[in-house]
Amino acid sequence: MTWQPIETAPKDVWVLVSWKGGLPEPYENGPWDYGMKDVPPPPAMTALWRPSEYCDDGGNWRSYSEDGGFYGEIPNPTHWMPLPEPPRE
Q1: Contact 15, 9 (CB under 8 A)
Q2: What's the rounded Cα separation, in Å, for the pair 76 and 6?
Q3: Domain residue limits, the chain
């Protein structure tokens, strides 16, 4: 698996997204809003495309929490790759 331009990402499956130079600042959503400011943001995040019919900006990449809620928009990712297969054992 190699990083590919975000423009080629499928918009119907979970993918791993990343940014040239790391996560843009400020990233105001996610665990960094909950007292974890001393923990650096990850170099990549799992994301799902949120179509325009669910938002006002023509669609965006979103990160989700384990309970199904949004962590928020992932600002301007530049690259993506498929998620790896989970462990078999």
Answers
A1: yes
A2: 9
A3: 4-82
